[in-house]
Amino acid sequence: QLYRDARECLTLLSQRLGSQKFFFGDSPASLDAFVFSRLAPLLKAKLPNGKLQQHLKSLQNLCNYCSSILSLYFPWDGGEPPSSTPRATGAEGSEGEEDPHKGRKQLLSVLVGLLAMLGYAFLSGIVSIQRGGAGPGARQPIALEEEEEEE
């Protein structure tokens, strides 16, 4: 039943895509990212049972869809990660040139995180600030020097 439903889903996706490049025209949308994230592993991975993979390969427009997204957004050949491209093999200082404000951004993100945690602590009641009042039950700390002066 599961394979039958999956085959039907693939067939419906193929019909919906038709001859378009992406599901909603000439530019990708979030649906394209979602569908590609499910189809690409099914198309490219070696599976012990290839029934569903064979059905996907028989739907030529979905295969072309995956291939075009792979070539458009993942241009390196054969799964080599982009870190092995000539851009990353330059001098050690190239990382600093990539983002000159990296340290500032890191510090800012740490400060934002700290403020968020403190805000949560105050709002949830984990930490509270009490002001000393002059009311009948209020305790006010007296410094040791002041105490001696009073006597």
Automatic annotation (TrEMBL):
The keyword Transmembrane applies. Residues 80-102, 132-151 are annotated as: Disordered. It comes from Bucco capensis. The chain crosses the membrane at residues 107-129. This is MTX1 protein. It comes from the Eukaryota. Keywords: Membrane, Transmembrane, Transmembrane helix. InterPro entries: Glutathione-S-Trfase_C_sf (IPR036282), Metaxin_GST (IPR033468), Mito_Protein_Transport_Metaxin (IPR050931). Residues 6-69 form the Metaxin glutathione S-transferase domain. GO terms for biological process: mitochondrion organization. It holds the Pfam family GST_C_6. GO terms for cellular component: SAM complex.
